[in-house]
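Lab manual, section 2.4: Encoding a predicted structure.

Procedure: take the sequence of the chain (103 residues), apply the prediction step described in section 2.3, and record the output as structure tokens. A sample record is shown.
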Amino acid sequence: MANPTPNTAAAPDLGSQGGEDSYEMVRQACAMAIQDAVAYLRNTELIANAVIGVASQRLLANVDEGNAAAAITAATSSVTAAAEALATISAAATKTLDQFPHT
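Recorded output:
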């Protein structure tokens, strides 16, 4: 049976270099997460622009207006969602870095 008493031992002292190295790795991971979110937004915008272009052409040609309008709405919503994801990831990365101990 597992010991239900929590481990209260102090974390090992990594020294200033170890702590700074850890912080640097976390900083890089946060930067990569933000870069990935930016790439996702950029790719979503490219696809949405193509969808909007085709749908606009269909609207102007009076062909399948209902689906064309729905496609424009969906494309716009996808860009909005990607931008919100970028904001959420950026805020989480900032909070992570602010709360991560470093020397």
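Check your result against the sample. DSSP finds two helices and no strands in the chain.
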